[in-house]
Amino acid sequence: MACRGVLWAFVVSTCLGSSVAQKVTQPQQEMSVQEKETATLACTYDTSESNYYLFWYKQPPSGEMIFIIRQEAFKQQNATDHRFSVNFQKATKNFSLRISDCQLEDAAVYFCAL
Ligand SMILES: *[C@@H]1O[C@H](CO)[C@@H](O)[C@H](O)[C@H]1NC(C)=O
Ligand SMILES: *[C@@H]1O[C@H](CO)[C@@H](O)[C@H](O)[C@H]1NC(C)=O
Hints:
This is Ig-like domain-containing protein. The chain is mainly β.
């Protein structure tokens, strides 16, 4: 199959927390998504804090780290920004990223950070 029109999202784990009690887990290794479709990137985390921020970043092949979206733990709404939105479940500590209407420019490594 030709790669044209296919999004390659390489997902790896990271932890930008200062406390050892904090960690994030991203189960997917790699996924490909057709253009215009919606991609969901899973992330679960663990922290003993009650007040915290969660972030998604992406690193395209050019190498720079690009901030996508931020969620405040106390916010009662899921953060959204254009084609990006999160499904934040504080009780189960899930913080997945949804990318709607996928574009070729979305091909990147995605980092979930606490
Ligand atoms: C985010 O959206 C999901 C699905 O609609 C919902 O279950 C969840 O409670 C929402 N989270 C927040 C913080 O509003
Ligand atoms: C939270 O993430 C875990 C691991 O990815 C998954 O098994 C579980 O179904 C998710 N729960 C919700 C409420 O999305």
